[in-house]
UniProtKB/TrEMBL annotation:
Residues 1-22 are annotated as: Disordered. Pfam families: Zn_peptidase (PF04228). Keywords: Membrane, Transmembrane, Transmembrane helix. This is Membrane protein. Signal peptide: none annotated. It comes from the Bacteria.
């Protein structure tokens, strides 16, 4: 994945609170053992911690602050920075994803409302409750923000067996923005009926977000930014393979087999490795969000 060296990055779309001290009590993530179970069952790439039962019960739940925003403002100015630094690359992906949806919604008679991504470390306060890094990346519909501890990208490779790579990280970001798109369209609420299983709405919502990530990937190198040129200039077959590998690595069956030694489809919340790959590729192959109806 290559960015235009001369492109300007929009750091206003990212809030950097890494290293900020979050007041409140001990972060327990749903009482410790519940958080561990959630971790082992792969409740990643989802919506807010309140819906996962992973809110912090240890004290206050402050809103995220942008006090350390200067960190990315100073370091992440151009596409050249995105080609050299992980945090700047994530800023650039956020810009590209939102550029696409900002242009796609009007073509379908709607209006896209941008959502910031919050970089945090350790734990963070959100409108969905306070959460620790153990929750993994998530989207909070309460404040319409994506939350991301960049350390998760290392875990994607070391704990979940993904091949890694820049586009594997981009897939994670694009998936979370898929949830934002669902929230704007009113489909995200379908996941809140409390049911699990391979045919549940929870799984269908996650697979649709995978498909939306693929739709963005299809259009990434042809979506212009404010300068009129695409921010992403090159996506290779190897990049897409990394995205597909990341999608498979966080399939419910793959994670259950890895951590509990057996597969229990009745408890799935995100879909199997094959389902996640298939729906990401469906979006990438067609480039059309209308082909992402996982509820049929």
């Amino acid at each position: 994945m290559q960015f235009d060296d001369d492109a300007d990055l929009d750091t206003s779309e990212v809030q950097d609170v890494r290293g900020s001290r979050i007041p409140g009590g001990r972060a327990t993530v749903g009482g410790g053992i519940a958080g561990l179970i959630a971790l082992l069952l792969g409740l990643f790439f989802g919506v807010g911690p309140d819906q996962l039962g992973l809110t912090d019960d240890g004290g206050d739940e402050p809103a995220a602050s942008s006090s350390s925003l200067a960190q990315v403002q100073q370091s992440c100015r151009t596409g050249k920075d995105a080609n050299a630094r992980e945090d700047c690359r994530t800023v650039a992906v956020v810009n590209s994803v939102q550029d696409y949806w900002r242009q796609e919604f009007p073509r379908r008679g709607g209006r896209y409302a941008p959502a910031p991504t919050v970089f945090f470390s350790g734990r963070v306060g959100t409108a969905c409750g306070a959460a620790s890094s153990a929750v993994g990346p998530f989207y909070c519909p309460g404040d319409r923000k994506v939350y991301l501890d960049l350390g998760f990208f290392d875990e994607l490779r070391t704990k979940f067996g993904s091949s890694g790579g820049p586009f594997a990280q981009a897939y994670v970001v694009a998936h979370e923005y898929g949830h934002h798109v669902q929230n704007l369209m009113g489909t995200l609420s379908r996941s809140q009926d409390g049911r699990t299983g391979e045919n549940s709405n929870a799984v269908r919502v996650e697979l649709q977000a995978d498909c939306y990530a693929g739709v963005w990937a299809h259009n990434a190198t042809r979506t212009p930014d404010e300068s009129g040129k695409p921010l992403i200039t090159k996506l290779t077959d190897a990049d897409i393979r990394d995205g597909l590998d990341a999608a498979a690595a966080v399939g419910d069956d793959r994670i259950q087999q890895r951590y509990q030694g057996r597969v229990t489809p009745e408890s799935w919340t995100h879909g199997s490795a094959k389902q996640r790959q298939d729906w990401f590729y469906q979006g990438f192959r067609t480039g059309d969000m209308a082909q992402c109806n996982t509820f049929r």
